[in-house]
Amino acid sequence: MKNVWTFHFQFKEQDHFNTYIMTKEQKKVLKRFPNAKLSYDDNGYKVIMINGYQPAKEYFMPDTMDTDKAWQYASVACRTTQQFNRTHPLKVEIDFGGEEAKNMRIERRKRNGKKSKK
After folding, report:
1. Which of 1, 4, 30, 55 could be a cystine partner for 77, CB 3.0 to 4.6 Å?
2. Phi-psi region of 13 (alpha: psi -120 to 50; beta: other; left: phi over 0)
3. In the chain, what are the domain boundaries?
4. CB contact set of 10 (below 8 Å; sequence gap of 6+)
5. b/e map of 29-64 (b: 16 or more CB within 10 Å)?
6. pLDDT tens, per residue, the chain with 118 residues
7. In this structure, what DSSP letter does residue 14 have?
8. CA distance 34 to 59
């Protein structure tokens, strides 16, 4: 069973509701990249574009003619990118404050722990 959300939109100048059905994968991708949209590549395959960037192509996802599969591939690519960024070896160097900020947080926790035991 596919998770599907149904949204009803009503514009001020119209008196009827527009129904838009959003899948779980669409919701995940649009939460991270609000300007992501479905488009077609040169061969007619459906791809998700984010400012001219195709996240699924970076991870060599297969081409698809199915809209749901295109959103699913984009969701997997976004999740994989997030996991790579979380565990990247240079993250320590990129981190704000670096080693000094890390040591200050540890020392603060140690001090707070001693105060609560009394």
Report:
1. 55
2. alpha
3. 35-87
4. 16, 17, 18
5. bbeebeebeeeeeeeeebbbbbeeebbbeeeebeeb
6. 566 666 655 555 555 555 667 888 888 888 888 888 888 988 889 888 888 888 888 889 898 999 889 999 999 999 998 888 777 777 655 555 677 877 888 888 888 777 666 5
7. -
8. 21
